[in-house]
UniProtKB/TrEMBL annotation:
Organism: Bacillus vallismortis
This protein's name: Serpin family protein
Pfam families: Serpin
Stretches assigned to the Serpin domain: 58-409
Organism superkingdom: Bacteria
SMART domains: SERPIN (SM00093)
PROSITE patterns membership: PROKAR_LIPOPROTEIN, SERPIN
Family listed: Belongs to the serpin family.
Length: 411
C-alpha cells in the first residue's frame, strides 16, 4: 500500500538593513508515563527542549485558531517552525538572541545544549525501525558568513552552505531544485518569490514516510454526512475500521491514537463533544501531556473522513504577539555575517499541506522568514463527522510534528 509522506520545508530569507551594529497503541499509555529525560537520554536531548517546542507550538496554534475563529482548516508544524527559528537564532546576539530564546521557551537552556538537542532529535528520527523521518538543512548566502555560524549549521544541523548566485532567476532555480530533491518533488517552488534584495536564505526540509500499523480497508469506506461549523452538512467518503486502539473519553472529547508501523509515531484524533472553541482553550501542552497518560486500550469502531488540507499563513504578527518584537525592527544578527550589517526580519510565512486516506498520509509545509536591509465487537464508537483536531507525534521524544484542525474536509 502507498505509504505516508510528510514534507516540511522552512525558509529564512536574509536581506541587508535596519539592525544594531555588530556586538504501540496499548503500550502508548505506558511509554507516555516515562519521563521526557528518560526517553530522550539516549539522544542527548535536554529535558526542557521538547517541552519548549510543544509549548511554543500549542500557543502558536491557539493564537492562529483564535484569529480565524475556527471557521476554517488549520495546519502547522511546531517542530519545523522551531528548527527554522533556532537556526536563525544562531546568528543572533544580545537582546535579539534573548528575545528569540524567550519566545521559543528556551531561555533556561544553554545555547550549546539547544544545538545538541536539535542534533539529537535529528539522530532520533534517523533511528526509526519502520519508515523514514529525515531532516536536511542548507544556507545560500551572497555575503561572507561568520566561521562560527557556518560551523554550527554544519555540525549541529547537518547543513550545507552554498554561495547564492547574483542572478535572481538562477538563485531561485538552485534553491527550489535543492528543496525538491530533499522532498521528493513535493515542494518545488519554495524560492519562487525570493526577493532580489535577499542576501541569505536558510532552508530546513523534513521528509517523513511511514505506513499505518492498521491500514483502513478502502472497500468498506462509505459516503456519509460530515457536519460543518456553520451547521450545514456535506457528503464525503468516511474510512472505517474496528480495531484495538489507545482510546480516551471524558466530558470534553473522545480521542483515539492511530499508530504508524513504527509504534512510536502516532496520529491522535480529538473529537470535541461541545464546540471546537471550548476545546481549543484547553489544547495546551500541559493538558495534552496529562491526557496522554490516560489513554487505555479499547476496541474502537472508528469512522473518519479522508481529507486534504492546504494552508497559507502569515505568522509574523502571531510571533510578534508571542514576544518576537525586535527581530522585526531593530534586530542584532551580528553573529551571522563577518561584516557588521543592519538586518531585520520583514515577514514570516508558513505554507502547509496534508492528505489522509485509507493507506496513509501525505503532508508538506513551507515556512519563510524574509530579512531586509534597512472485525471486533466494539467497546466504543468514534464517528468524526464534525470538526476535529489532530496531532502527529513522535511518541518517544513527544515532539509535535504536526497540529491540525479539520473544519471542512476536502478531497
Amino acid at each position: 500500500m502507498k505509504g505516508k509522506l510528510f514534507t516540511v520545508v522552512l525558509v529564512c530569507m536574509m536581506f541587508g538593513g535596519g539592525c544594531k551594529p555588530a556586538e504501540e497503541p496499548a503500550s502508548t499509555a505506558q511509554s507516555s508515563s516515562l519521563s521526557d529525560s528518560a526517553k530522550n537520554k539516549a539522544y542527548d536531548i535536554h529535558e526542557g527542549f521538547i517541552k519548549a517546542e510543544r509549548t511554543f507550538g500549542t500557543e502558536l496554534f491557539q493564537y492562529m485558531s483564535a484569529q480565524d475563529g475556527l471557521k476554517d482548516n488549520l495546519l502547522i508544524s511546531p517542530y519545523s517552525l522551531q528548527q527554522m527559528l533556532m537556526m536563525t537564532a544562531n546568528g543572533a546576539a544580545g537582546d535579539t538572541l534573548k528575545e528569540m530564546k524567550a519566545a521559543l521557551y528556551l531561555s533556561d537552556i544553554h545555547d550549546s545544549a539547544i544545538n545538541e538537542s536539535s542534533f539529537g532529535l535529528m539522530k532520533r528520527f534517523e533511528s526509526l525501525t519502520e519508515g523514514d523521518l529525515m531532516t536536511a538543512n542548507a544556507v545560500w548566502t551572497r555575503l561572507e558568513t561568520e566561521p562560527d555560524f557556518k560551523q554550527t549549521i554544519k555540525q549541529y544541523f547537518f547543513g550545507s552552505v552554498f554561495k547564492m548566485d547574483d542572478n535572481i532567476k538562477t538563485a531561485k532555480n538552485s534553491i527550489s531544485q535543492w528543496a525538491a530533491g530533499q522532498t521528493k518533488g513535493r515542494i518545488d517552488d519554495i524560492a519562487d518569490h525570493l526577493s532580489p534584495k535577499a542576501v541569505l536564505v536558510l532552508i530546513n526540509a523534513v521528509y517523513f514516510q511511514a505506513k499505518w500499523a492498521l491500514p483502513f480497508d478502502p472497500n468498506v469506506s462509505a459516503e456519509e454526512h460530515f457536519f460543518l461549523p456553520d451547521g450545514s452538512a456535506k457528503k464525503l467518503l468516511m474510512m472505517k475500521q474496528t480495531a484495538r486502539l489507545a482510546y480516551l473519553e471524558n466530558d470534553l472529547f473522545q480521542a483515539v491514537k492511530l499508530p504508524y508501523e513504527d509504534q512510536q509515531l502516532s496520529f491522535t484524533l480529538f473529537l470535541p463533544k461541545k464546540t471546537p472553541a471550548s476545546f481549543m482553550s484547553l489544547f495546551t501542552n500541559q493538558n495534552i501531556k496529562a491526557w496522554d497518560r490516560e489513554f487505555q486500550p479499547k476496541t474502537v469502531k472508528l469512522s473518519m473522513p479522508r481529507f486534504t488540507l492546504k494552508g497559507r499563513y502569515n505568522v509574523k504578527y502571531a510571533l510578534r504577539d508571542m514576544g518576537l518584537i525586535s527581530v522585526f525592527s531593530d534586530a542584532d544578527f551580528s553573529r551571522m555575517f563577518t561584516e557588521g550589517r543592519g538586518v531585520s526580519i520583514d515577514d514570516v510565512n508558513h505554507h502547509t499541506f496534508i492528505k489522509v486516506n485509507e493507506s496513509g498520509t501525505e503532508a508538506a509545509a513551507a515556512s519563510s522568514a524574509e530579512i531586509v536591509e534597512a472485525g471486533l465487537a466494539p467497546d466504543v464508537t468514534l464517528t468524526a463527522n464534525r470538526p476535529f483536531f489532530f496531532a502527529i507525534t513522535d511518541e518517544q521524544t513527544t515532539s509535535l510534528l504536526f497540529l491540525g484542525f479539520v473544519a471542512n474536509p476536502h478531497e
